[in-house]
Amino acid sequence: MPLRILSDPDNLPALDRRYALDRPALGLGAGDPPPRILLLYGSLRERSFSRLCVEEAARLLQFFGCETRIFDPSTLPLPDQVTGDDHPAVHELRELSMWSEGHVWCSPERHGQITGIMKLQVDHLPLSMGGMRPTQGRTLAVMQVSAGSQSFNSVNTLRVLGRWMRMVTIPNQSSVAKAFAEFDESDRMKPSAYYDRIVDVMEELVRFTILLRPHTAQLVDRYSERKEAGVPIDSATDLSSIATSPTYRKGE
User: Fold this and answer.
1) Neighbouring residues of 60: CB distance < 8 A, sequence distance ≥ 6
2) Residue 251: helix, strand or coil by DSSP?
């Protein structure tokens, strides 16, 4: 199964727990079951800084009470390389996205853009799959790593992709400059403003995921899709028609 095993999931050496909320979404909605977050990274290098950032994010998300899964893209075929996308890694990626309530995407910046590995994973996630939607309505946090000075090209592109995939991309984001200097010899992120921003982004992702959880079905309900499926509105259960009816308004 193409999943990364997270080492030392409870070890957060760069986090100052005096200032950390273990349940940042408390009071915004039901925290049970734990929010389910899928994390994707965009490099196959043995020491991939986008993967290391994703692993730091996953540890934080687990600290915040989430369930996380990190997809390993190393065995993904190219789009249309396998007839009908009938490949174990493609099936796994799509099943993980269906399982999830939110995503974290982290790409290196290469030639001023996201990597092909990052785009490959998004390309294998269809908008619709047998009446099910692997990305629609899910929350999304975007991050990038750079070898040089700070840039926002990759996160901007990831936002475009998230919007295209009908995801709710949260306002905050992370861009780690000179990523090679931000990790120690144990491949753990050093305390820094860059790390603190990742904490901020993960806190916000948890809040938005919990906040939107009870409303997901309504937020992705579309006129065009109801029309295409031939599903007319039932006036007996449509709350908007009840609220605007003359009888209801007289009782205001």
Assistant:
1) 12, 15, 198, 199, 202
2) coil
pLDDT per residue as tens digits for the range 21-31: 999 999 999 98
Longest dimension (CA), the chain: 70
DSSP 3-state assignment of 68?
A: strand
Residue linked to tokens 């009470």: 65
Check: CB of residue 117 under 8 Å from CB of residue 125.
Answer: no
Residue that is written with structure tokens 């687990």 in the block: 62
CA 194 to CA 246: how far, in whole Å?
55
Return the pLDDT at 221.
82
How many Å apart are CA 243 and CA 246, to the nearest integer?
9
Distance (Å, rounded) from C-alpha 125 to C-alpha 144? Answer: 20
Q: How far apart are CA 77 and CA 93, in angstroms?
A: 12
CB atoms within 10 A of CB 76: 23
Residue 63 three-state SS: helix
Query: Of all helices (H) and strands (E), which one includes residue 175?
Result: strand 174-176
Q: Report how far residue 153's alpha carbon sits from residue 218's, in angstroms, rounded to the nearest whole number.
A: 32
* Total Cβ atoms within 10 A of residue 217: 8
pTM for the predicted model, two decimal places:
0.90
